[in-house]
Amino acid sequence: MANAADKTAVVTVNLHDMGLDDEMTAKCLTLIEERRYTELEKLLKTYRQSLLDSVHKYNDRIDCLDYFTYYLRKNGGI
């Protein structure tokens, strides 16, 4: 069985892979260590929503870009 240090290392890598910075990662690790899972879940849900907001923002920009290139092709330029 993996020891606590190994588990913490795996969780730390996973949190960084999610895009969390060092400060947020440390906060998550503290919440895990203190078994404050409800607060951890709330924190991660908030982070997830911010990621989704970014996706939507960039998706809107892609839609605008696609429309603009369509418009240019259809009208032979500006």
Could you explain the architecture of this structure?
It is elongated and about 65 Å long. The chain has one domain. The protein is built from three helices and no strands. By secondary structure, the protein is mainly α. The longest helix is centred in the last third of the chain and has 39 residues, at 37-75. The chain has helices spanning 4-17, 22-33, 37-75. It is 83% helix and 0% strand.
Helix content: over 70%
Work out the number of β strands.
0
How much of the sequence lies in strands comes to under 5%
By secondary-structure content and strand pairing, the structural class works out as mainly alpha
What's the gyration radius in Å?
20 Å
Count of discrete structural domains:
1
State mean pLDDT (0 to 100 scale). Answer: 93
Largest sheet: none
Per DSSP, the total helix count is 3
Kindly report how far apart the N and C termini lie. 65 Å
Q: What characteristic shape results from the CA principal axes?
A: elongated
Poorly predicted regions:
none
In sequence order, what are the helices and strands, one letter per element?
HHH
